[in-house]
Amino acid sequence: MDFDFLMSILMIVGIDIVLGGDNAIVIALASRNLPETQRNKAIFLGTGLAIIVRILLTIIAVYLLVIPFLQLIGAVLLLFISYNLLTGEGEDLSKIQASPTLMAAVRTIVFADIVMGFDNVLAVAGAAHGNIILVVLGLIVSIPIIIWGSKLILVLMEKFSILVYVGSGILAYTAGKMATHEERLASFFEENTFLQMGIPAAAVLGVLAAGYIANQIRLKKAHN
């Protein structure tokens, strides 16, 4: 298997793990009032439909990123997403309500995933660089990890804060690579090849530094 292809799959799986942690919380909140048998159905049906929708949205995003300069805009958005992940300025999960019926729970899971999955869709589309096979393979590989491992990942991220920095770094690196793959700037990057590695590295260092400083300022304010 081609090394770049394998690395891209690992990047997509890593992105799905980092950004898929909230899925377990959404599923738990939406289905917590259902009987045990219906709860399991809601989990598998809701997660299955959400994954299908996410694959379709990601494929659409892959094609949309071909539009001139949209890849560059997507890179900037993904940088903000990686910063928000690091500083905890993410989605408000408290608004997810428990659903009284199976179909209501499934509906909640799917719609919440669509709303909260924008960062995931954008990041995966950027990491795939137009390769639909990568999108599908990456998501398929990450499905069991997200479903059965996301709660563990959330616990580990809360316990070991360095993992949040690692995840944010992966997203920032993806954003940097997206910027260097902008078609309208191809000739510029061919003339300045050092920027093809320099921009992703700068994106990672910039986001991690900004996130660290923001977190330190927030801690100081909390102690005052």
TrEMBL record:
Keywords: Membrane, Transmembrane, Transmembrane helix. It is found in: Membrane. It is a multi-pass membrane protein. The keyword Aminoacyl-tRNA synthetase does not apply. The keyword NAD does not apply. InterPro entries: Integral_membrane_TerC, Integral_membrane_YjbE. It comes from the Bacteria. Its main location: membrane. Pfam families: TerC. The chain crosses the membrane at residues 6-30, 42-63, 69-86, 98-118, 124-148, 160-179, 194-214. Belongs to the TerC family. PANTHER family: MEMBRANE BOUND PREDICTED REDOX MODULATOR (PTHR30238), SLL1022 PROTEIN (PTHR30238:SF4). This is TerC family protein.
